[in-house]
């Protein structure tokens, strides 16, 4: 069965990009492309041409979630597979492929009408990523993709079926706590590239709760945490460690309402046969205290 293998890129509509400067540049050290098209800001975090696109808009919303496949054969097979499932999938125009800076691109709607895309062969820049603030190391990307996202969905059963049967993702584990029922899915060694949850904690159906970026060393996360305190960046959750993926991380509030998790040390799944799927009764081992 064809399957996506990475979370590749994300797009956001934002009403005031200036509000994002501190979090994106001074905390996370992303790089804004000086050659971004008019009305957009494209951001880098690794060798990819860009991983994020922020569109100047009247609203604040997620514009698209971009997944990636590993081969042209997988791209065509996935396109046929989605068609056979009755999912309204379209091959993108040359203009859209140019905008995303990918060789091949298809578009469709996921659960709760979330705009999704799958690309093959994103362009890599011959110039290295230049962090906009001091960083000791790199982001963990490459074969693990951009990071992970957590979406809330109105019908968890239907959403899980879509991500497993249409996109070929595999279940990592589950966490049930308070009113939350979360299922974690992987498509590469990263413990999860996607988590799905019932609408809860203020995140509605079809809305992004947070995305996560992972550093390859704890010091980048620790120094970013110091900068967050010094710059009064609002937190959702304090520094803490997750039960299931063992990630040490903290969560920041963004101007669009969703959160950004920044972490280190996430677990990896290299052998699905050997991996034991567990149900946890809490998301944290320590920390991750809710900031009111
Ligand atoms: Fe997360």
Automatic annotation (TrEMBL):
Its cofactor is Fe(2+). Gene3D superfamilies: 2,3-Dihydroxybiphenyl 1,2-Dioxygenase, domain 1. Pfam families: BphC_D1 (PF22632), Glyoxalase (PF00903). Belongs to the extradiol ring-cleavage dioxygenase family. This is Biphenyl-2,3-diol 1,2-dioxygenase. Signal peptide: none annotated. Residues 6-121, 145-265 form the VOC domain. Keywords: Aromatic hydrocarbons catabolism, Dioxygenase, Iron, Metal-binding, Oxidoreductase.
